[in-house]
Specification:
Layout lengths: L6 H7 L11 H15 L3 H14 L4 H13 L3 H14 L4 H13 L3 H14 L4 H13 L3 H14 L4 H13 L3 H14 L4 H13 L3 H6 L1 H6 L11 H5 L5 H14 L16 E7 L6 H12 L5 E7 L6 H7 L4 E4 L5 H10 L4 E4 L10 H5 L4 E4 L14 E5 L14 E5 L28 E5 L8 H13 L3 E6 L3 H13 L7 E4 L5 H6 L6 E3 L8 H8 L4 E4 L8 H8 L6 E2 L2 H12 L2 H17 L5 H18 L2
Parallel strand pairs: 1-2, 1-4, 2-3, 4-5, 5-6, 6-7, 8-9, 8-11, 9-10, 11-12, 12-13
C-alpha cells in the first residue's frame, strides 16, 4: 500500500479539524515542485512528493485532490478514488472533490450514487460547471435528451467559453439527426478551443452521415493524424474505420483509447472445473439487429450436452427476436442497469470458462467489464471489426483472409482463425424467389447495380468509382439505400457533377418487413461493396439471395470482410486489388449477363452443399475453437 493511505493517516491526524488548512513552507515548495513534474509528464516522481508530504503530515485537501489527478493519469483509479475521499474528509464542503467522485461513480455506472455526489457538489457550489455537465451526460446516456439539454443549457449560462458544453448540445442534436444545429454547436466548441478533438470528430461524423465530401476534405489533416498521439482524445474509433483501412493506425488508436479506459493492466481469473464448458455472450443486440441475425443459428446449434450457454444483455428493450433467442440459453440476464462492479460480480458468480464480447466499442457497449475480467478466457468477436487494444481481451476471432499473418502485429489480441470465413451465414425461412420487389420503369436490357449501404460507408473513392462505372456503361442504374434528405441531395449533386443523369440513381425506401428488404436483392444484377468498411451482414444477405458482389481488398479487418466471404465461396474472381480492377470488373459483368448467370449458378450450388451456408458445421468449428483455447490455457 502507498504511503498516506494506511492506518498512519488516521493515527497521526485523528485530532485534526475537518476543515483545517496546513500552511507550511515545505508544503508550498514541494507542491510547486510536484505540479511542475506533473506538467513535464513525470507522474511517478510527482506522486512520490505528494505521498512524502502526506506521510509527514504536511498536507491539505488540495494535496489529496492533486494526487488523485496524478493517480488517474497513471491508471490507478482505485487510489485516485481514495484520495478524493480523503480530500472530503479534510474539507467537508469541498465541492470539486464531490464532483470528481461523482464522475468516478458515473464511469463505473453507479448512476444513483453519481447523481447524489453531483447534487452535493451543486449544493456546496451552485455554479460548479462540471457537475451540470456530468448530470447532463448521465441523462443523455439514459435517453432522456430533454433533461440532458436542460443541464447542458445551465452549464452554458455559467460559462459559455468552455467547448464541452457546445459539444454536448451538438451531440444531442446529432442524435436527433438535426445535423444543421449539431454542426453549429460543434463549430462553436472549436471557436472556444480550436484543438478540441471531440468536436472535430463530431463534425467528421456529421459529414460522413450526410456525404459532405467538401467539408471532410477540409478536415483531412486532422483525420490522417487523429488518435495517433496518446494525448489525443477521440470519442469514436469506428468513425475512422470508414476513413482509412490502415491496420497500424487502427491499432495505435485502439491502444491509446484503451489506456483511457484503464485497459493496460493484465488481470487473471482461475479456470473452473465445470462439468460443461460455460460460454457467456455479452451484447446489446439480442433483438432485431444484424449481429443477432448472424449469431442466431450459433445459439441454436450449440451442443447443449457439452456447452452451457449464457447471455448477458446490455439493452433493456426486447422484441420478438429477443423472445425467440432466449430459449437457447441456460440463462438470459439483462445487466444494462448494473454498475461495472455489479455486472462483473454477477457474471463472475456464473463461473464462465469463456466470455465472448459481441460489441467492442460499438454503441451501448460495456467493454469495461472485460478490463476487470469476467472469465478466464475473453474473446472479441463479430460486433467490432478490429482490435480493442485491451490487454485483458485475450483473443479475436477472424480467419486467414481478414487477418493475414503480416497484419497480426497490429492486434493486441491473439488471433483465432476459423477454417473458412469468420462470419456465419444467416438463417432464412423462405425462398428468395417467393416474393420480391420489382424496380419499375427501367428500360429493357437494363443492368441494376445495388449498394444498400449506410451513408457513412460511402467515401469519395467509392462513389467516384461508381460514377466512373455509370459513365462507361449506358444501360446501368445505381440502386442505393435511401439516406436522409441532406445526404441524398449531396449524393445527387455529386453524380450530376460527374455528368451522370440523376434518373440513373435510384433509392430503396425503408420497408418495415425484413422479408421485403431481403427480397429486393433478387431484383438486382450485381451488388457493389464499399471500400474501407465493407458490408458485413449486408453481404451475407446478398449472397444468400444469390446476388454476386464485387469487392476491393483492403488492409484492415473491416476492409477484407467481402474478400473473406467470396474466398470461402470459391469466388475469388470477384475480389479486386485496385480501384481500377474494381471498375473494370463491374463494367465487364454489366456487359456480360451470361457470365453473371454462371456466377449465380455457382452461388446456388454452394447453397446446396457449400461450407459457408452450412451453419451446423460453422458452429461445430467454433466449438472446436473454444475447446482448443481451453486446452491451451489449462
Amino acid at each position: 500500500m502507498n504511503k498516506g493511505f494506511g492506518n498512519d493517516f488516521n493515527k497521526k491526524n485523528s485530532n485534526l479539524d475537518k476543515n483545517f488548512l496546513v500552511e507550511d513552507i515545505e508544503l508550498s515548495a514541494q507542491t510547486k515542485k510536484a505540479i511542475f513534474l506533473a506538467r513535464e509528464g513525470k507522474f511517478l516522481e510527482s506522486a512520490k512528493i505528494y505521498n512524502n508530504l502526506i506521510y509527514k503530515g504536511k498536507f491539505n485537501h488540495l494535496t489529496f485532490h492533486r494526487l488523485a489527478g496524478i493517480y488517474e493519469r497513471l491508471g490507478k483509479r482505485k487510489e485516485a478514488f481514495q484520495c478524493l475521499q480523503k480530500a472530503i474528509n479534510i474539507k467537508k464542503n469541498y465541492a470539486e472533490a464531490y464532483c470528481d467522485i461523482g464522475r468516478y461513480l458515473q464511469d463505473a455506472k453507479e448512476i444513483k450514487g453519481a447523481l447524489n455526489y453531483f447534487a452535493k457538489a451543486i449544493e456546496y457550489k451552485p455554479d460548479l460547471f462540471g457537475a451540470y455537465i456530468n448530470i447532463g451526460n448521465i441523462y443523455q446516456k439514459l435517453g432522456n435528451l430533454l433533461e440532458a439539454m436542460k443541464y447542458f443549457q445551465k452549464s452554458l449560462e455559467i460559462n459559455n467559453k468552455i467547448p464541452i458544453t457546445f459539444y454536448n448540445i451538438g451531440t444531442i442534436y446529432a442524435i436527433e439527426k438535426n445535423y444543421i444545429d449539431a454542426e453549429k454547436n460543434y463549430k462553436s466548441a472549436l471557436k472556444c478551443d480550436k484543438n478540441f478533438n471531440p468536436a472535430k470528430i463530431g463534425l467528421v461524423e456529421i459529414y460522413l452521415n450526410t456525404f459532405n465530401i467538401k467539408s471532410l476534405k477540409k478536415l483531412k489533416n486532422y483525420i490522417d493524424n487523429a488518435g495517433l498521439n496518446e494525448e489525443d482524445q477521440i470519442t469514436n474509433l469506428l468513425a475512422f474505420f470508414y476513413l482509412d483501412c490502415s491496420p497500424k493506425k487502427q491499432y495505435i488508436r485502439a491502444l491509446n483509447f484503451s489506456k483511457r479506459l484503464g485497459g493496460i493492466q493484465k488481470n487473471f481469473i482461475q479456470s473452473k472445473n465445470n462439468k460443461k464448458i460455460k460460454i457467456g455472450y455479452i451484447s446489446a443486440n439480442f433483438n432485431d439487429h444484424p449481429v443477432s441475425k448472424i449469431m442466431e443459428t450459433i445459439f441454436i446449434n450449440h451442443d447443449k450436452k457439452k456447452f452451457e450457454i449464457h447471455a448477458y444483455s446490455l439493452n433493456n428493450v426486447e422484441d420478438k427476436i429477443t423472445k425467440s433467442l432466449k430459449i437457447n440459453f441456460k440463462s438470459f440476464s439483462c445487466i444494462s442497469s448494473l454498475s461495472i462492479k455489479e455486472a462483473v460480480t454477477k457474471i463472475r458468480l456464473d463461473n464462465l470458462d469463456i466470455a465472448v464480447d459481441l460489441m467492442g466499442y460499438t454503441n451501448k457497449n460495456m467493454i469495461k467489464i472485460f478490463n476487470e475480467r469476467i472469465a478466464p478466457i475473453q474473446i472479441n468477436y463479430l460486433g467490432f471489426p478490429g482490435t480493442t487494444g485491451i490487454s485483458n481481451m485475450d483473443f479475436l476471432i477472424g480467419d486467414e483472409f481478414v487477418v493475414p499473418k503480416n497484419s497480426q502485429k497490429y492486434y493486441s489480441e491473439k488471433i483465432i482463425r476459423m477454417p473458412n470465413s469468420f462470419i456465419n451465414s444467416i438463417k432464412y425461412n423462405y425462398s428468395p424467389s417467393e416474393k420480391y420487389i420489382k424496380v419499375n420503369s427501367l428500360p429493357k436490357g437494363s443492368v441494376l447495380l445495388a449498394a444498400f449501404h449506410k451513408t457513412s460507408k460511402l467515401s469519395l473513392e467509392v462513389v467516384d468509382a461508381w460514377a466512373n462505372i455509370l459513365r462507361r456503361t449506358e444501360n446501368t442504374y445505381l440502386w442505393l439505400k435511401e439516406p436522409i434528405d441532406s445526404a441524398k441531395e449531396n449524393l445527387l449533386t455529386f453524380f450530376s457533377s460527374q455528368r451522370i443523369d440523376n434518373k440513373r440513381i435510384l433509392f430503396a425506401e425503408h420497408v418495415s418487413s425484413y422479408d421485403e428488404h431481403i427480397s429486393r436483392y433478387c431484383s438486382a444484377d450485381i451488388f457493389l461493396d464499399t471500400f474501407n468498411y465493407n458490408g458485413h451482414s449486408t453481404l451475407v444477405e446478398c449472397i444468400w439471395s444469390e446476388l454476386p458482389f464485387v469487392t476491393l481488398l483492403g488492409k484492415s479487418f473491416s476492409s477484407r470482410v467481402g474478400g473473406s466471404i467470396l474466398h470461402s465461396l470459391d469466388l475469388d474472381e470477384l475480389i479486386c486489388n485496385s480501384i481500377e480492377e474494381y471498375i473494370e470488373k463491374v463494367v465487364f459483368y454489366s456487359s456480360n449477363k451470361q457470365k453473371l448467370e454462371v456466377l449465380k449458378n455457382k452461388i446456388n450450388s454452394q447453397k446446396k452443399s457449400g461450407v459457408f451456408f452450412n451453419q451446423k458445421v460453422f458452429t461445430k468449428n467454433l466449438e472446436e475453437v473454444y475447446e482448443n483455447i481451453l486446452r491451451m490455457n489449462h
